[in-house]
Amino acid sequence: MQHDVIVVGAGLVGGVLANALAAQGLRLVVVDSGSAPVVDPQHCDIRVSALGRAADNVLRNLGIWEEMPRQRVSPFRAMVVWDAGSVGAIRFDAAEIAQPYLGHIVENNALIDASHQVLSRFDTVTVLWRSRVQELVTSAHSVRIELSGGEAFTARVLVGADGAGSWVRRRLAIGSPRHDYAQRAIVAQVETEKPHQQTAWQRFLPTGPLAFLPLADGSSSIVWSCDRPTADELLELDDASFRARLASAFEHRLGDILRCGPPRSFPLSRSDAEAYIANRSALIGDAAHTVHPLAGQGANLGIADAVTLAEVLVDAANSGKDLGGRAVLRRYERWRKSENALMMYAMHGLQRLFSAPWGLVRGVRGLGLRVTDRSGPLKHAIIRRAMGLDGDLPRLARPNPAPPAESGP
């Protein structure tokens, strides 16, 4: 057996999984059809992630955090949410639960690059960029892949971390029902007249939510989710007109938009794989599920998948069990499918609630925001859950991870 685990997908989630496994001595091959990430020293990555405290803990415990350039990481200490269709508003503040911050906004490319800097120190790991898997064969005792360049690798278990359009998921014939939100998310980096105050801002508009996420250099990353006709209209505007529309949609909370980088957009949908595992195979991250970005939970869920699967596989290895055995992989599936479903349907419900045009619904959601804002215990519970401080957390997501399970029969 050449390797213990094959990881298809070397992005944010696949990189975290590989580090968690390599740190415990497992032998890996990681393949990705794309190129290694390039961090532009002059420009921020337009794609960012909002990481809660559990994800922060993972990165610190794996040594990835230390490799992140400080200028690519921005803490946020508060979050303000308000509704354009009512007078409802709510503010979440880390100080309310005696925490220094709620989480961090990080640039995706910088995080992936830092992850691979750490991964490169393990001589038990082979990373192959620009390598496409063209064949996958599973048997009772192993899984084998063949790459387009002719290389072949065999392992005990294979993990699909290859994104929403996962080739691995399709090859394993795992269905993934998809709900199309009929929306596009417009992303861009903007400079505002007023400072962002290390606060994440989000306004729910009738056409979809608009978020301003604080960056370390004082600028903000916007995620403007809106219906397709509105998105098409916005993307056709000239720079000055787009900035004016953006400031107006945001009620000038941070003043005028002084500068806006080139916007990009991508379609929004929700999906949930019918199974997270197959014969000697497992899915993590977007290969297993996708969510609406309104609460920024996609990366957090994927990182939680990665370290949960790593914990399950490491425990199995220490106990002398077959890493690819169904009982081992079922432990991962049971653990993460329920946790993910809770967050996914909560996000889906919020999206439906805040897009509803009816006056009665608008009044109820506005009242709900105000009541929640004034209800200490409920508000604190929401903050802690969103930060990843509560729930069934794997070891690496805790501040001081417990040692792996003892070896045994």
Describe the protein's architecture and organization.
The chain is of the alpha+beta class and 409 residues long. Helices cover 33% and strands 28% of the residues. It has 10 helices and 20 strands. Strands 5, 6, 12, 13, 14, 15, 16, 17 and 20 form a 9-stranded mixed sheet that branches. Strands 1, 2, 8, 9, 10, 11, 18 and 19 form an 8-stranded mixed sheet that branches. It has a 3-stranded antiparallel sheet with strand order 3-7-4. Helix 1 (12-22) packs parallel to helix 3 (108-119) and helix 7 (298-318) runs antiparallel to helix 8 (326-355). The longest helix has 30 residues, at 326-355. The model is unreliable at 402-409 (pLDDT under 50).
Task: List the SSEs and their pairings.
Layout (H helix, E strand, L loop, with lengths): L2 E6 L3 H11 L5 E4 L16 E5 H9 L11 E4 L1 E6 L5 E5 L9 E5 H12 L5 E4 L4 E6 L4 E5 L4 E9 L6 H5 L6 E15 L6 E7 L2 E7 L5 E8 H8 L3 H11 L7 E4 L3 E9 L4 E2 L2 E3 L5 E2 L7 H21 L7 H30 L3 H16 L1 H12 L22
Parallel strand pairs: 1-2, 1-11, 2-8, 5-13, 11-19
Antiparallel strand pairs: 3-7, 4-7, 5-6, 9-10, 10-11, 12-15, 12-16, 12-17, 13-14, 14-15, 17-20, 18-19
Helix pairs in contact: 1-3, 1-7, 7-8
Low-confidence stretches: 402-409
Structural class category: alpha+beta
Helical region count? Answer: 10
Mean pLDDT, to the nearest integer, reads 87
What's the overall geometry?
globular
The SSE string, one letter per element, is EHEEHEEEEHEEEEHEEEEHHEEEEEHHHH
**What fraction of residues sit in β-strands?**
25-35%
Total strands: 20
Quote the distance from N terminus to C terminus.
Answer: 22 Å
Biggest sheet features: 9 strands, mixed
Spatial extent as radius of gyration: 21 Å
Percent range of helical residues:
25-40%
